[in-house]
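Lecture notes, part 5. Sequence design as translation. It can be helpful to think of inverse folding as translation between two languages: the language of shapes and the language of residues. The source text, in structure tokens, appears below.
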């Protein structure tokens, strides 16, 4: 499995390559943390829980597009975490009406230097 760690404003956004579907999956919690400029994991996780419940209530396709994949956390262990593909990341960012979302999307969609580090690992 190919893993990529990307940085937006010195903040990590983890991604995993899916060979079967030939696309990248991005950590929802990393993106929510970036868009809210929040470093506290619990606050980021709680905000995502709140937003996910709200979107589910609105019957948003975004929630059903979420896939859980194992990503390495800050403690070095691998945990299942919600991930989205690139088109769903764009949809997620639209739920953050602020300047950071616009800057993030510019970086995410148009930057050719968004991949800073990637490696392969065996599960």
């Amino acid at each position: 499995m190919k893993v990529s760690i990307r940085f937006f404003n010195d903040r990590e956004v983890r991604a995993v390559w899916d060979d079967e579907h030939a696309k990248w999956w991005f950590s929802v919690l990393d993106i929510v943390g970036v868009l809210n400029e929040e470093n506290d994991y619990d606050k980021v996780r709680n905000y995502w829980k709140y937003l996910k419940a709200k979107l589910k209530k609105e019957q948003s396709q975004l929630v059903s597009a979420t896939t859980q994949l194992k990503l390495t956390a800050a403690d070095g262990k691998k945990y299942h975490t919600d991930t989205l593909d690139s088109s769903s990341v764009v949809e997620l960012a639209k739920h953050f009406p602020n300047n950071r979302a616009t800057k993030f999307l510019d970086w995410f969609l148009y930057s050719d230097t968004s991949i800073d580090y990637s490696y392969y690992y065996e599960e």
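The translated text above is only one of many valid answers, since several sequences can fold into similar shapes. Residues 2-120 form one domain.
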